[in-house]
Amino acid sequence: TTTLAARVQAVKPSATLAITARAKALRAAGKDVIGLGAGEPDFDTPEHIKDAAIAAINAGFTKYTAVDGTPELKQAVIDKFKRENGFDYAAEQILVSCGGKQSFFNLAQALLNPGDEVIIPAPYWVSYPDMVLLASAIPVLIHAGADQAFKITPNQLEAAITAKTRLIVINSPSNPTGMAYTRDELAALGAVLREHPNVIIATDDMYEHIRWSTEPFVNILHVCPDLTPRTLVLNGVSKAYSMTGWRIGYAAGPTDIIKAMTKIQSQSTSNPTSISQVAALAALQGPQDCIGVMLAAFKARHDVVVERLNQIPGINCLPTDGTFYVFPSVHGMIEQLPGINNDVELAEHLIENAGVALVPGTEFGLSGHIRISIATSQSNLDQALERIARMVG
Ligand code: PLP
Protein backbone atom coordinates (compact mmCIF):
# COMPACT_ATOMS: atom_id res chain seq x y z
CA THR A 1 0.00 0.00 0.00
CA THR A 2 1.01 3.59 -0.60
CA THR A 3 2.78 5.48 2.16
CA LEU A 4 0.79 8.66 2.58
CA ALA A 5 1.76 11.95 4.19
CA ALA A 6 1.83 12.02 7.97
CA ARG A 7 -0.63 14.89 7.96
CA VAL A 8 -3.31 12.66 6.48
CA GLN A 9 -2.91 10.22 9.33
CA ALA A 10 -3.25 13.04 11.84
CA VAL A 11 -6.82 13.86 10.82
CA LYS A 12 -10.11 12.10 10.26
CA PRO A 13 -12.84 12.69 7.70
CA SER A 14 -15.72 14.92 8.81
CA ALA A 15 -17.96 12.78 11.05
CA THR A 16 -21.05 14.78 10.26
CA LEU A 17 -20.63 14.32 6.52
CA ALA A 18 -19.97 10.61 7.13
CA ILE A 19 -23.22 10.10 9.08
CA THR A 20 -25.23 11.86 6.41
CA ALA A 21 -23.61 9.68 3.73
CA ARG A 22 -24.28 6.53 5.77
CA ALA A 23 -27.97 7.41 6.21
CA LYS A 24 -28.24 8.05 2.47
CA ALA A 25 -26.60 4.71 1.66
CA LEU A 26 -28.89 2.81 4.05
CA ARG A 27 -31.91 4.52 2.51
CA ALA A 28 -30.70 3.65 -0.99
CA ALA A 29 -30.48 0.02 0.19
CA GLY A 30 -34.16 0.17 1.09
CA LYS A 31 -33.84 0.79 4.84
CA ASP A 32 -36.16 3.24 6.53
CA VAL A 33 -33.74 5.73 8.07
CA ILE A 34 -34.61 9.22 9.26
CA GLY A 35 -31.60 11.50 8.98
CA LEU A 36 -31.05 13.88 11.87
CA GLY A 37 -27.43 14.45 10.97
CA ALA A 38 -27.82 17.25 8.46
CA GLY A 39 -25.66 20.31 8.85
CA GLU A 40 -27.67 22.32 6.38
CA PRO A 41 -31.11 23.92 6.17
CA ASP A 42 -33.78 21.72 4.59
CA PHE A 43 -35.04 24.65 2.50
CA ASP A 44 -34.39 25.33 -1.14
CA THR A 45 -32.13 28.25 -2.01
CA PRO A 46 -34.46 31.25 -2.49
CA GLU A 47 -35.65 31.81 -6.06
CA HIS A 48 -34.14 35.28 -6.57
CA ILE A 49 -30.70 33.90 -5.66
CA LYS A 50 -30.98 31.01 -8.12
CA ASP A 51 -32.24 33.40 -10.82
CA ALA A 52 -29.20 35.63 -10.37
CA ALA A 53 -26.89 32.65 -10.86
CA ILE A 54 -28.74 31.47 -13.95
CA ALA A 55 -28.54 34.96 -15.41
CA ALA A 56 -24.80 34.98 -14.66
CA ILE A 57 -24.31 31.76 -16.58
CA ASN A 58 -26.32 33.05 -19.51
CA ALA A 59 -24.33 36.28 -19.51
CA GLY A 60 -21.11 34.28 -19.71
CA PHE A 61 -19.86 35.14 -16.23
CA THR A 62 -18.11 31.80 -16.11
CA LYS A 63 -14.41 32.61 -15.94
CA TYR A 64 -11.80 33.19 -13.25
CA THR A 65 -12.44 36.14 -11.02
CA ALA A 66 -10.08 37.93 -8.65
CA VAL A 67 -8.82 35.36 -6.12
CA ASP A 68 -10.33 37.22 -3.17
CA GLY A 69 -13.74 37.69 -4.79
CA THR A 70 -15.30 40.09 -7.26
CA PRO A 71 -15.19 43.78 -6.30
CA GLU A 72 -19.01 43.78 -6.31
CA LEU A 73 -19.30 40.89 -3.87
CA LYS A 74 -16.56 42.28 -1.62
CA GLN A 75 -18.44 45.57 -1.53
CA ALA A 76 -21.65 43.71 -0.63
CA VAL A 77 -19.78 42.00 2.21
CA ILE A 78 -18.45 45.38 3.40
CA ASP A 79 -22.00 46.77 3.25
CA LYS A 80 -23.34 43.75 5.14
CA PHE A 81 -20.85 44.28 7.97
CA LYS A 82 -21.75 47.98 8.13
CA ARG A 83 -25.52 47.49 7.90
CA GLU A 84 -25.94 44.47 10.17
CA ASN A 85 -23.00 44.68 12.54
CA GLY A 86 -21.83 48.29 12.51
CA PHE A 87 -18.30 47.26 11.48
CA ASP A 88 -16.12 49.25 9.10
CA TYR A 89 -13.90 47.27 6.75
CA ALA A 90 -11.92 48.27 3.67
CA ALA A 91 -11.74 46.08 0.56
CA GLU A 92 -8.23 44.80 1.42
CA GLN A 93 -9.64 43.48 4.71
CA ILE A 94 -12.09 41.11 3.02
CA LEU A 95 -11.51 37.64 1.55
CA VAL A 96 -14.27 35.62 -0.12
CA SER A 97 -13.63 31.86 -0.05
CA CYS A 98 -15.16 28.53 -1.02
CA GLY A 99 -17.32 28.29 2.09
CA GLY A 100 -16.72 29.23 5.68
CA LYS A 101 -14.72 26.03 5.92
CA GLN A 102 -12.08 27.38 3.56
CA SER A 103 -11.99 30.68 5.46
CA PHE A 104 -10.87 28.89 8.62
CA PHE A 105 -8.55 26.60 6.65
CA ASN A 106 -6.86 29.62 5.05
CA LEU A 107 -6.51 31.25 8.46
CA ALA A 108 -4.92 28.17 10.00
CA GLN A 109 -2.49 27.83 7.10
CA ALA A 110 -1.64 31.52 7.08
CA LEU A 111 -1.15 31.95 10.82
CA LEU A 112 0.04 28.77 12.48
CA ASN A 113 3.53 27.36 12.85
CA PRO A 114 4.28 23.84 14.03
CA GLY A 115 3.75 23.65 17.78
CA ASP A 116 1.52 26.71 17.99
CA GLU A 117 -1.51 26.19 20.20
CA VAL A 118 -5.07 26.95 19.20
CA ILE A 119 -7.74 27.21 21.86
CA ILE A 120 -10.96 25.49 20.84
CA PRO A 121 -13.92 25.46 23.22
CA ALA A 122 -15.51 21.99 23.32
CA PRO A 123 -18.08 21.00 22.15
CA TYR A 124 -16.73 22.31 18.85
CA TRP A 125 -17.49 22.25 15.15
CA VAL A 126 -15.82 19.04 14.01
CA SER A 127 -13.50 20.70 11.52
CA TYR A 128 -11.61 23.10 13.80
CA PRO A 129 -9.29 20.58 15.48
CA ASP A 130 -8.53 18.74 12.25
CA MET A 131 -7.79 21.91 10.32
CA VAL A 132 -5.47 22.97 13.15
CA LEU A 133 -3.73 19.59 12.94
CA LEU A 134 -3.38 19.97 9.17
CA ALA A 135 -1.44 23.16 9.93
CA SER A 136 0.86 21.13 12.26
CA ALA A 137 -0.45 23.10 15.21
CA ILE A 138 -1.95 21.84 18.46
CA PRO A 139 -5.65 22.02 19.36
CA VAL A 140 -6.08 22.93 23.04
CA LEU A 141 -9.60 22.07 24.12
CA ILE A 142 -11.52 23.83 26.87
CA HIS A 143 -14.35 21.62 28.05
CA ALA A 144 -17.70 23.24 28.66
CA GLY A 145 -20.48 20.88 29.72
CA ALA A 146 -24.23 21.30 30.05
CA ASP A 147 -23.77 22.63 33.62
CA GLN A 148 -22.24 25.77 32.09
CA ALA A 149 -24.56 25.81 29.06
CA PHE A 150 -21.62 24.59 26.94
CA LYS A 151 -19.89 27.98 27.24
CA ILE A 152 -16.36 28.51 28.49
CA THR A 153 -15.65 30.79 31.45
CA PRO A 154 -13.00 33.52 31.70
CA ASN A 155 -11.14 31.43 34.31
CA GLN A 156 -11.01 28.45 31.99
CA LEU A 157 -9.75 30.67 29.19
CA GLU A 158 -7.05 32.23 31.35
CA ALA A 159 -5.89 28.78 32.46
CA ALA A 160 -5.66 27.51 28.87
CA ILE A 161 -3.52 30.35 27.51
CA THR A 162 0.22 29.68 27.32
CA ALA A 163 3.17 31.38 25.67
CA LYS A 164 2.46 29.21 22.63
CA THR A 165 -1.20 30.20 22.23
CA ARG A 166 -1.60 31.75 18.80
CA LEU A 167 -5.33 31.60 18.10
CA ILE A 168 -8.68 31.13 19.78
CA VAL A 169 -11.90 30.39 17.97
CA ILE A 170 -15.26 31.51 19.31
CA ASN A 171 -18.33 30.07 17.58
CA SER A 172 -21.56 31.70 18.74
CA PRO A 173 -24.27 30.57 18.21
CA SER A 174 -22.50 27.25 18.34
CA ASN A 175 -22.57 24.16 16.22
CA PRO A 176 -23.29 21.68 17.86
CA THR A 177 -24.74 23.16 21.07
CA GLY A 178 -26.94 25.97 19.74
CA MET A 179 -25.75 28.24 22.55
CA ALA A 180 -24.76 31.88 22.10
CA TYR A 181 -22.57 33.98 24.36
CA THR A 182 -24.19 37.04 25.91
CA ARG A 183 -22.67 40.52 25.76
CA ASP A 184 -21.42 40.17 29.32
CA GLU A 185 -19.89 36.76 28.71
CA LEU A 186 -18.09 38.04 25.63
CA ALA A 187 -16.87 41.09 27.51
CA ALA A 188 -15.45 38.83 30.23
CA LEU A 189 -13.65 36.64 27.69
CA GLY A 190 -12.42 39.77 25.92
CA ALA A 191 -11.02 41.11 29.20
CA VAL A 192 -8.86 37.99 29.47
CA LEU A 193 -7.76 38.16 25.83
CA ARG A 194 -6.89 41.84 26.17
CA GLU A 195 -4.06 40.80 28.52
CA HIS A 196 -2.62 38.39 25.94
CA PRO A 197 -1.77 40.50 22.89
CA ASN A 198 -0.19 37.63 20.93
CA VAL A 199 -3.44 35.72 20.69
CA ILE A 200 -5.39 36.18 17.46
CA ILE A 201 -9.16 35.77 17.74
CA ALA A 202 -11.43 34.13 15.19
CA THR A 203 -15.13 34.70 15.70
CA ASP A 204 -17.15 32.24 13.61
CA ASP A 205 -20.50 33.93 13.12
CA MET A 206 -21.90 31.40 10.65
CA TYR A 207 -25.18 31.09 12.61
CA GLU A 208 -25.62 34.83 13.17
CA HIS A 209 -29.04 34.85 11.56
CA ILE A 210 -30.38 31.67 13.10
CA ARG A 211 -31.17 32.98 16.58
CA TRP A 212 -34.41 33.17 18.54
CA SER A 213 -33.65 36.34 20.48
CA THR A 214 -34.87 39.65 19.09
CA GLU A 215 -31.80 41.33 20.61
CA PRO A 216 -29.24 42.29 17.97
CA PHE A 217 -26.50 39.75 17.26
CA VAL A 218 -23.24 40.36 19.14
CA ASN A 219 -19.75 39.01 18.69
CA ILE A 220 -16.66 39.87 20.72
CA LEU A 221 -15.95 43.00 18.65
CA HIS A 222 -19.25 44.58 19.68
CA VAL A 223 -18.16 44.54 23.31
CA CYS A 224 -14.38 44.79 22.84
CA PRO A 225 -13.83 46.91 19.72
CA ASP A 226 -10.22 47.43 20.85
CA LEU A 227 -9.58 43.79 19.82
CA THR A 228 -10.41 44.58 16.17
CA PRO A 229 -6.73 44.72 15.05
CA ARG A 230 -6.30 41.04 15.98
CA THR A 231 -9.74 39.59 15.28
CA LEU A 232 -10.98 37.76 12.20
CA VAL A 233 -14.72 37.70 11.62
CA LEU A 234 -15.77 34.57 9.72
CA ASN A 235 -19.19 34.30 8.16
CA GLY A 236 -20.89 33.17 4.98
CA VAL A 237 -24.11 32.63 3.10
CA SER A 238 -24.35 28.84 3.57
CA LYS A 239 -26.65 28.66 6.57
CA ALA A 240 -28.48 32.00 6.47
CA TYR A 241 -29.63 31.65 2.86
CA SER A 242 -29.68 27.87 2.55
CA MET A 243 -26.74 27.96 0.15
CA THR A 244 -24.49 25.20 1.47
CA GLY A 245 -23.80 23.74 -1.96
CA TRP A 246 -22.77 27.03 -3.51
CA ARG A 247 -19.64 27.23 -1.34
CA ILE A 248 -19.31 30.89 -0.44
CA GLY A 249 -17.93 32.13 2.86
CA TYR A 250 -16.10 35.30 3.74
CA ALA A 251 -13.61 36.62 6.25
CA ALA A 252 -12.84 40.14 7.48
CA GLY A 253 -9.87 41.19 9.52
CA PRO A 254 -6.43 42.76 9.69
CA THR A 255 -5.00 43.44 6.23
CA ASP A 256 -1.78 41.47 6.74
CA ILE A 257 -3.59 38.31 7.81
CA ILE A 258 -6.21 38.62 5.06
CA LYS A 259 -3.41 39.08 2.53
CA ALA A 260 -1.66 35.94 3.76
CA MET A 261 -4.92 33.99 3.65
CA THR A 262 -5.46 35.22 0.08
CA LYS A 263 -2.00 33.97 -0.87
CA ILE A 264 -2.85 30.51 0.50
CA GLN A 265 -6.11 30.53 -1.42
CA SER A 266 -4.38 31.70 -4.62
CA GLN A 267 -2.24 28.55 -4.52
CA SER A 268 -5.04 26.16 -3.63
CA THR A 269 -8.48 26.88 -5.09
CA SER A 270 -8.04 30.33 -6.68
CA ASN A 271 -11.33 32.23 -6.67
CA PRO A 272 -14.61 30.79 -5.41
CA THR A 273 -16.93 29.86 -8.26
CA SER A 274 -17.82 32.92 -10.32
CA ILE A 275 -21.48 31.90 -10.56
CA SER A 276 -21.78 31.32 -6.84
CA GLN A 277 -20.33 34.74 -6.18
CA VAL A 278 -23.14 36.31 -8.19
CA ALA A 279 -25.63 34.22 -6.20
CA ALA A 280 -24.06 35.35 -2.92
CA LEU A 281 -24.24 38.96 -4.09
CA ALA A 282 -27.97 38.52 -4.70
CA ALA A 283 -28.33 36.93 -1.26
CA LEU A 284 -26.59 39.78 0.56
CA GLN A 285 -28.21 42.58 -1.44
CA GLY A 286 -31.64 41.12 -2.11
CA PRO A 287 -34.73 40.81 0.08
CA GLN A 288 -33.92 39.36 3.50
CA ASP A 289 -37.36 37.93 4.33
CA CYS A 290 -36.25 34.45 3.24
CA ILE A 291 -34.21 34.30 6.46
CA GLY A 292 -37.27 34.96 8.60
CA VAL A 293 -39.26 32.18 6.95
CA MET A 294 -36.59 29.59 7.76
CA LEU A 295 -36.01 31.02 11.21
CA ALA A 296 -39.69 30.70 12.13
CA ALA A 297 -39.69 27.05 11.07
CA PHE A 298 -36.52 26.26 13.01
CA LYS A 299 -37.87 27.95 16.14
CA ALA A 300 -41.19 26.07 15.99
CA ARG A 301 -39.39 22.77 15.55
CA HIS A 302 -36.91 23.60 18.30
CA ASP A 303 -39.70 24.23 20.80
CA VAL A 304 -41.46 20.94 20.03
CA VAL A 305 -38.27 18.87 19.90
CA VAL A 306 -36.83 20.19 23.17
CA GLU A 307 -40.11 19.59 24.98
CA ARG A 308 -40.51 16.04 23.64
CA LEU A 309 -36.87 15.11 24.24
CA ASN A 310 -37.22 16.10 27.87
CA GLN A 311 -40.22 13.77 28.17
CA ILE A 312 -38.08 10.78 27.20
CA PRO A 313 -36.63 9.07 30.28
CA GLY A 314 -32.86 9.46 30.35
CA ILE A 315 -32.67 12.44 28.00
CA ASN A 316 -32.01 15.99 29.13
CA CYS A 317 -32.13 18.81 26.61
CA LEU A 318 -31.38 22.46 27.22
CA PRO A 319 -33.31 24.92 25.07
CA THR A 320 -30.93 26.66 22.66
CA ASP A 321 -30.32 30.23 21.58
CA GLY A 322 -30.28 29.36 17.89
CA THR A 323 -28.86 27.23 15.04
CA PHE A 324 -30.71 24.15 13.81
CA TYR A 325 -29.18 21.76 16.33
CA VAL A 326 -30.02 20.60 19.82
CA PHE A 327 -27.45 18.79 21.94
CA PRO A 328 -29.17 16.73 24.63
CA SER A 329 -27.46 14.68 27.31
CA VAL A 330 -28.19 10.98 26.90
CA HIS A 331 -26.34 9.72 29.97
CA GLY A 332 -29.54 8.38 31.51
CA MET A 333 -30.57 6.66 28.31
CA ILE A 334 -27.20 4.92 27.98
CA GLU A 335 -27.59 3.57 31.52
CA GLN A 336 -30.98 2.06 30.67
CA LEU A 337 -29.81 0.24 27.55
CA PRO A 338 -27.98 -3.03 28.20
CA GLY A 339 -24.87 -3.38 26.06
CA ILE A 340 -24.70 0.33 25.27
CA ASN A 341 -21.78 2.01 27.02
CA ASN A 342 -21.46 5.44 25.45
CA ASP A 343 -22.90 7.94 22.96
CA VAL A 344 -21.00 6.43 20.01
CA GLU A 345 -22.55 3.02 20.65
CA LEU A 346 -25.91 4.65 21.22
CA ALA A 347 -25.76 6.44 17.85
CA GLU A 348 -24.79 3.16 16.21
CA HIS A 349 -27.66 1.40 17.98
CA LEU A 350 -30.12 4.10 16.89
CA ILE A 351 -29.15 3.95 13.23
CA GLU A 352 -29.19 0.14 13.14
CA ASN A 353 -32.22 -0.62 15.30
CA ALA A 354 -34.37 2.49 15.32
CA GLY A 355 -33.68 3.88 11.87
CA VAL A 356 -32.54 7.23 13.23
CA ALA A 357 -29.24 8.71 12.09
CA LEU A 358 -27.61 11.30 14.31
CA VAL A 359 -24.13 12.29 15.36
CA PRO A 360 -22.68 11.22 18.74
CA GLY A 361 -21.41 14.05 20.96
CA THR A 362 -17.96 12.49 21.13
CA GLU A 363 -17.38 13.68 17.56
CA PHE A 364 -17.80 17.24 18.82
CA GLY A 365 -15.61 16.71 21.87
CA LEU A 366 -18.29 15.96 24.48
CA SER A 367 -19.31 12.39 25.23
CA GLY A 368 -22.65 11.48 26.75
CA HIS A 369 -24.51 13.73 24.33
CA ILE A 370 -25.96 13.48 20.85
CA ARG A 371 -26.49 16.16 18.25
CA ILE A 372 -29.90 16.26 16.67
CA SER A 373 -30.37 18.39 13.59
CA ILE A 374 -33.81 19.94 13.34
CA ALA A 375 -33.20 20.84 9.70
CA THR A 376 -35.79 18.33 8.58
CA SER A 377 -39.58 18.28 8.45
CA GLN A 378 -41.64 18.29 11.63
CA SER A 379 -43.14 14.94 10.63
CA ASN A 380 -39.66 13.43 10.29
CA LEU A 381 -38.79 14.84 13.71
CA ASP A 382 -42.02 13.49 15.23
CA GLN A 383 -41.34 10.02 13.87
CA ALA A 384 -37.69 10.05 14.90
CA LEU A 385 -38.53 11.11 18.46
CA GLU A 386 -41.18 8.42 18.62
CA ARG A 387 -38.59 5.84 17.60
CA ILE A 388 -36.05 7.07 20.12
CA ALA A 389 -38.69 7.07 22.87
CA ARG A 390 -39.61 3.50 22.03
CA MET A 391 -36.00 2.41 22.61
CA VAL A 392 -36.34 3.18 26.28
CA GLY A 393 -39.80 1.74 26.57
N1 PLP B 1 -18.59 27.21 10.86
C1 PLP B 1 -19.48 26.45 11.49
C2 PLP B 1 -19.66 26.59 12.96
C3 PLP B 1 -20.23 25.52 10.78
O1 PLP B 1 -21.13 24.74 11.42
C4 PLP B 1 -20.03 25.38 9.39
C5 PLP B 1 -20.75 24.35 8.62
O2 PLP B 1 -21.15 23.33 9.10
C6 PLP B 1 -19.09 26.22 8.80
C7 PLP B 1 -18.39 27.12 9.56
C8 PLP B 1 -18.74 26.16 7.33
O3 PLP B 1 -19.78 26.32 6.47
P1 PLP B 1 -19.55 26.32 4.91
O4 PLP B 1 -18.16 25.88 4.61
O5 PLP B 1 -20.55 25.38 4.36
O6 PLP B 1 -19.78 27.74 4.47
Automatic annotation (TrEMBL):
What domain of life is recorded for the organism? Bacteria
Q: Indicate yes or no for the key word rRNA processing.
A: no
The keyword Transferase belongs to this UniProt entry's keyword annotation: yes
Q: What is its EC number?
A: 2.6.1.-
One BP term from GO? amino acid metabolic process
Q: Which Pfam families match?
A: Aminotran_1_2
**Which molecular function terms from Gene Ontology are attached?**
pyridoxal phosphate binding; transaminase activity
Q: Where are the transmembrane segments?
A: none
Q: Which Gene3D superfamilies match?
A: Aspartate Aminotransferase, domain 1, Type I PLP-dependent aspartate aminotransferase-like (Major domain)
Domain (Aminotransferase class I/classII large) spans: 31-388
Look up the record and name the cofactor or cofactors this protein needs: pyridoxal 5'-phosphate
Which UniProt keywords are listed?
Aminotransferase, Pyridoxal phosphate, Transferase
Database matches in PANTHER family: ASPARTATE AMINOTRANSFERASE (PTHR46383)
Family membership, please give it: Belongs to the class-I pyridoxal-phosphate-dependent aminotransferase family.
Tell me the protein's name.
Answer: Aminotransferase
Q: What is the lineage of its organism?
A: Bacteria, Pseudomonadati, Pseudomonadota, Gammaproteobacteria, Chromatiales
